[in-house]
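Entry type: protein chain
Record version: 2
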Amino acid sequence: MQFENLNNKTTVLFDQALSPTEKEKIINEMKTNSPGDLEFLNQTATALTPSTGIKASKALKQNVMEKIHESSNSTFGKPGKTITLLMPTWKKIASIAAILLVSLAIVPIFGPQLFNPNAKAMSLLNTSIEAISNLKSMNISFQVRSIPGDNLDLIDTKGDFIDYKLWKEFAPAEKWRIEKPGLTVVMDGENQYKFMEKAGIGFVGSTKARFVDWMKMLLDPQKILQNEKTFASKHKAEYKIDKTNTETLLTISAKAQGDFKNPYLLNSSIPESNNRRVYHFDKTTNRLTALEVYVTENKTEILVLKLKSVEYNEVIEPETFKITLPEGTKWVQLKEIEPNTQNATAAKNPEEAANLFFESLAKKDWETVYKLFPSIEQSSNVENIKQEYAGLHIISIGKPFKSGMYAGQFVPYEIQLKSGETQSENLAVRNDNTDKIWQIDGGF
């Protein structure tokens, strides 16, 4: 058997039809002629060591073989200029090794002594599996017990299931969209956009804007295993991995995160609840296929989230990653409404901010109202808000309290509108900004 170069030798090693005698002959030749390359493979294998036993499918191995053959004929370079791939042999081996090791076919070839426990292995393995699976896009339909129009991460254990949809495009550029009735968030590769139908406003932030919190987990399904294991280690949650003939099941049982001396936010989101999350992964591809989330309330488990369907590598229309605003609604840059010394008020604590806000609504002091709650001024519903809340009467303002993971505080209030209707809620107030300015964040 003749070989042109070491790259070909390595490729042939993974040929299922190759006899043990032929494999041994190739390895002996590599030891004699290219000991440095063989050592490189050994080191790479150690770096990618899996902490649990994993067996690659025939389909995955076939994908590996195709990738190897493609790498032999690859080109690279700047736009408009093609350069033949003439790397040293060891660099070819380096580029191939990561793919080969993910297939785990290297174990029977070089022997189990190459592998030893490594804390980084699972993260690297998940990343490699995602790449080798050619994951281009994903479309998920799921249901959540929630409230239409409110935050994506909000759950309501007593509410009905409402439909959520998620689209993600992994290549050529990462883009995604998550929507529920009355609320849509899009990341188009350059910015994040959030449109709230009821509030009549659209916000624009950077790609790192936190318009979505826990549900961003679903945007990286191939990293869920590592992310949840990291979470379990950090927050002392319990996790277990079970396997069937077709599935790998990951179960996370977690305690509610946050301060619950006042239980106001308990069970308002998945992180702020005592919950159990069950992920289902296809055993062959490691792709997410199902998910159920249960919240424990009054010693009873309540299903609050369930996946309906997951589709991979379907064509997603470009318009999916755009939001067309209704007439009269405009985009507002987050940086335009950030607190600063020029729009500060005299409020020195949450209670003062709440009092000033409702007093300003009662007196129709819109300049102060806009300073305390800048997004109202930008809303297409601003005139309706003025008409409803102008001239209100303050019945009571309570003592501020903290709850859950919210960065600010809540101020209980009761007001009477000029219509005669009374409204009792908790006003969200926060000052976690550079200048420590108190502003209203919602709750009325």
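Comment: The two ends are 79 Å apart (CA to CA).
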